[in-house]
Specification:
Structural class: alpha+beta
Strand content: 35-45%
Distance between the termini: 58 Å
Radius of gyration: 20 Å
Shape: globular
Number of strands: 10
C-alpha cells in the first residue's frame, strides 16, 4: 500500500465519524432568539432556557421586568405550562412545533422534538 492510499483510507474513515459525534450531542432548540435544552419525563417534554431570559410584562403603572431561566413543559395531552407565561397549549406539524399562551406564542420552526420512546403517541397534538 502506498502513502496516498493510506491517507485516503484515514480521511474516508474520519468523514464517517464526524456525523456520529454530532449525533451524540444534546439537542438544542431555538425560539424567539433564546436557546433551550430538552429532557423528557413521563408527562412529556421539558425545555429549559440555557440562559436567563429577560421579559417585559406590560401592565400599565404596574409593568415589570423578569430576568430568569425559564422552563417550558409540553404535556401528553397537548397542554403547555411555562414558568413565566402560565398555562397554554402546544402542537406540532411538519414545519416544527409551537406553544401558545394567553399573550404570546413561542414557535420552534424547523425543529423536531426528540426523546419519546416509540410507544409514545403525540398524534393528537397536531396543529
Amino acid at each position: 500500500m502506498n502513502l496516498n492510499t493510506i491517507l485516503f483510507a484515514v480521511l474516508a474513515a474520519a468523514v464517517h465519524l464526524v456525523p456520529l459525534a454530532a449525533v451524540a450531542e444534546d439537542f438544542d432548540y431555538v425560539s424567539s432568539n433564546h436557546s433551550w435544552s430538552i429532557s423528557c419525563n413521563t408527562s412529556g417534554y421539558v425545555l429549559r432556557s440555557q440562559y436567563p431570559v429577560t421579559r417585559f410584562h406590560e401592565a400599565g403603572v404596574n409593568s415589570s421586568v423578569t430576568r430568569e431561566k425559564e422552563t417550558l413543559y409540553l404535556g401528553r395531552s397537548c397542554d403547555a405550562s411555562h414558568t413565566v407565561l402560565g398555562d397554554g397549549k402546544w402542537c406540532w406539524a411538519n414545519g416544527g412545533f409551537s406553544a401558545e399562551f394567553d399573550k404570546m406564542r413561542m414557535g420552534f420552526p424547523r425543529q423536531e422534538l426528540m426523546c419519546p420512546t416509540p410507544q409514545d403517541d403525540f398524534l393528537g397534538c397536531r396543529c
